[in-house]
Protein backbone atom coordinates (compact mmCIF):
# COMPACT_ATOMS: atom_id res chain seq x y z
CA UNK A 1 0.00 0.00 0.00
CA UNK A 2 1.40 3.36 -0.97
CA UNK A 3 0.43 6.75 0.39
CA UNK A 4 -0.78 9.32 -2.10
CA UNK A 5 0.95 12.67 -1.82
CA UNK A 6 -0.41 15.91 -3.22
CA UNK A 7 1.51 19.16 -3.54
CA UNK A 8 -0.70 21.87 -2.05
CA UNK A 9 1.63 24.86 -2.22
CA UNK A 10 5.06 26.18 -3.05
CA UNK A 11 7.34 28.30 -0.91
CA UNK A 12 9.80 30.43 -2.87
CA UNK A 13 12.93 31.69 -1.12
CA UNK A 14 15.69 33.75 -2.75
CA UNK A 15 18.68 34.18 -0.44
CA UNK A 16 19.99 37.06 -2.55
CA UNK A 17 23.42 35.42 -2.50
CA UNK A 18 25.56 34.13 -5.35
CA UNK A 19 29.15 32.87 -5.61
CA UNK A 20 31.63 35.72 -5.92
CA UNK A 21 33.44 35.17 -9.26
CA UNK A 22 36.46 37.06 -7.90
CA UNK A 23 36.82 34.68 -4.94
CA UNK A 24 38.40 31.28 -5.84
CA UNK A 25 37.00 29.71 -2.64
CA UNK A 26 33.45 30.20 -3.92
CA UNK A 27 32.51 32.56 -1.11
CA UNK A 28 29.01 33.98 -1.46
CA UNK A 29 28.27 37.66 -1.93
CA UNK A 30 25.00 39.47 -1.47
CA UNK A 31 23.64 40.81 -4.73
CA UNK A 32 20.14 41.73 -3.48
CA UNK A 33 18.09 41.55 -0.27
CA UNK A 34 16.57 38.15 0.53
CA UNK A 35 12.94 37.65 -0.49
CA UNK A 36 10.26 34.99 -0.18
CA UNK A 37 6.77 34.23 -1.43
CA UNK A 38 4.17 31.49 -1.19
CA UNK A 39 1.69 30.14 -3.74
CA UNK A 40 -1.28 28.02 -2.63
CA UNK A 41 -2.30 25.46 -5.26
CA UNK A 42 -5.65 24.86 -3.58
CA UNK A 43 -7.13 28.38 -3.64
CA UNK A 44 -4.67 30.16 -5.96
CA UNK A 45 -3.55 32.68 -3.35
CA UNK A 46 -0.17 34.30 -3.83
CA UNK A 47 1.36 35.66 -0.62
CA UNK A 48 4.29 38.02 -0.54
CA UNK A 49 6.82 38.65 -1.70
CA UNK A 50 8.39 39.84 1.52
CA UNK A 51 11.91 41.18 1.71
CA UNK A 52 14.86 41.47 4.08
CA UNK A 53 14.22 40.90 7.77
CA UNK A 54 10.65 39.75 7.15
CA UNK A 55 11.83 36.63 5.28
CA UNK A 56 12.63 34.26 8.22
CA UNK A 57 9.25 34.71 9.93
CA UNK A 58 7.43 34.45 6.59
CA UNK A 59 9.21 31.20 5.74
CA UNK A 60 8.56 29.76 9.20
CA UNK A 61 4.87 30.66 9.42
CA UNK A 62 3.18 31.33 6.09
CA UNK A 63 2.43 27.85 4.75
CA UNK A 64 1.14 26.71 8.15
CA UNK A 65 -0.93 29.83 8.87
CA UNK A 66 -2.37 29.89 5.34
CA UNK A 67 -3.39 26.25 5.58
CA UNK A 68 -5.46 27.17 8.65
CA UNK A 69 -7.32 29.93 6.79
CA UNK A 70 -7.21 28.71 3.17
CA UNK A 71 -10.66 29.22 1.60
CA UNK A 72 -10.28 25.93 -0.29
CA UNK A 73 -9.99 23.95 2.93
CA UNK A 74 -12.09 26.05 5.31
CA UNK A 75 -15.16 26.62 3.10
CA UNK A 76 -17.87 24.08 3.80
CA UNK A 77 -18.30 21.70 0.91
CA UNK A 78 -14.97 22.52 -0.70
CA UNK A 79 -12.90 19.68 -2.05
CA UNK A 80 -9.15 19.61 -2.07
CA UNK A 81 -7.43 19.35 -5.44
ZN1 LIG B 1 -5.07 28.52 -0.12
Automatic annotation (TrEMBL):
It comes from the Bacteria. This is Uncharacterized protein. It comes from Streptomyces tremellae.
Amino acid sequence: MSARQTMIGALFVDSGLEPDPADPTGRLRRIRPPRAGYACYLCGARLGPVHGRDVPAFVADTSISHRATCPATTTQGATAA
